[in-house]
Amino acid sequence: MTDHAQEQEMEIEALKAILMDEFEEIHPSESGLNTSNRCFQIKLSLQTSSYEHHAQADPLTKQAQQSSHKRFFLDDETDESSSPVQLGLIFSHTEKYPDEIPLLNLKSIKGIQASDLAITVPHGEPVTVETFLAWRERFEAELALERAKLLPESALIAPKEKKLTGRQWFQSGRASA
């Protein structure tokens, strides 16, 4: 742990310098995490006034609910201020950090209701080497088809003339003229 302790402390100092008032150290019992290590809270506020748009388009909140390393719980504290949504991201470094991800917890400080946290179902095809190679073959075939459409038909049908090599051109007598 001594190897990582200095690195963790430098990261915490950097976060304090960057986030200033939004970054604070909290007691581990307030964090909701199962740890006795130092815990920190970062307050995240929405900067736009479009809360409805944000609630529909925020995948971060929905992902936090699904991840095994993250837990989500709601507070009933809501007060009226300029920001319609405010979240607290609580984290604690594990002893093996940075080799192991930190413990995370997302806490609703105000403005998020349970109904806003619908779980998004992944859609589409997962990208693997095999699916990528199959897609690339289809894509290259599609490009070849487009290139073939751009060529005039006479270029495809006409026999190609053989180009003369340097020796053949010289022997043909054109060089002396």
UniProtKB/TrEMBL annotation:
Organism: Cynara cardunculus var. scolymus (Globe artichoke)
Region Disordered, annotated ranges: 53-80
Matching InterPro entries: GIR2-like, RWD_dom, UBQ-conjugating_enzyme/RWD
PANTHER family: RWD DOMAIN-CONTAINING PROTEIN
Residue ranges constituting the RWD domain according to the UniProt record: 10-158
Protein name as it appears in the record: RWD domain-containing protein
SUPFAM superfamilies: UBC-like
SMART domains: RWD
Pfam family, one: RWD
